[in-house]
Amino acid sequence: MLLPSFQALVKGSPILPVLHMESVDDAINVSRALYAGGIDSVEIVLRSPVALDCIRAVKEQMPEITVGVGTLTNSLQVKEAVSAGAQFLVSPSFTKSLASSMIDTGLPILPGVATPSEITQALELGLTEMKFFPAEQYGGVNGLKALSSVFSQVKFCPTGGVGPHNINDYFALESIFAVGGSWMVAKDLVNQKNWSQISRLSEQAISSVKRLREL
Ligand code: 3PG
After folding, report:
1. Residue 125: which pLDDT band, with cuts at 50, 70 and 90?
2. 34, 111, 118, 213: which has the fewest C-beta neighbours closer than 10 Å?
3. What is the model's pTM?
């Protein structure tokens, strides 16, 4: 089966912001601020009671943004997220049954892996795009280099501990196609409704990438 490309989805702005939202209004405002800063996809994580409502609202009100779901850990959540309108699916972990239920949706997917065995299991399902999570805690750039030298067919989106201090080091690796993270949508910025700073941090992140990659 030909799987839809996650890389193609984030090609224009290969930064995947991880949004942990407590209100629909915040989700809309944050998405607007990210878009103003040049980021056109958002991952809304299923770690708050309003996450599915946020996905629905961003999909309806901001067609210029591609909205996906994160922190999927079971197939029921996959179904609920797809019903809410999620356009891509991200999980922090890998199991064959979870990944299979994600594949069955026909949407671009990004399963989370951290070890050679998980990568091998994902490859067995035909997957070649993976989230390396939690990136910094599992060896960061050096860990990823070691994995990539063995699994040269895999492209990664490192997430977890990525920020302005190390984004250039990650993008220097050929094996990564994007990075994920929450630094530009940090809780205090959202609580302070500091939308302009969210836009600024997004712009800075996109500028860093542009110095290393053609977008
Ligand atoms: C998450 O799911 O919370 C992501 O891994 C974000 O990680 P970060 O907050 O370290 O960017």
Report:
1. very high
2. 213
3. 0.97
